Amino acid sequence: MSRGRRTAGFLGALLAGAGTLHMLRPEPFDTIVPPALPGPARGYTYASGVAELAVAGLLAAPRTRRLGGAAAAALFVAVFPANVQMAYDWRRARPRRRAIAYGRLPLQGVLIAQALHIARNAE
Question: What are the record keywords, sorted (predicted)?
Fold first, then answer.
């Protein structure tokens, strides 16, 4: 298996898992929706869950993998404000929670880079 296929498989599994969690346990995700966004947080939680599941599907199929990589990069950029909100909200939390919240910020850059690699190099 090529590195690109492994990366697509990893991102697809990550997104499928996250999308499923958004649908089954939306409450934790509701809390990190930036309050500046209009409307109820739950709508954003469900919309991002649907997007994550759709992008996971695109990454799974070789014919749509290039599009899936581009869509994954866009999705990771779109949800970054929620990660910033989480880091802000947890800035006074216990060290473990702070480490999780702050660690997500640079991790998002890694995920974007992986998604762009798939978009550029998918067969």
Answer: Membrane, Transmembrane, Transmembrane helix
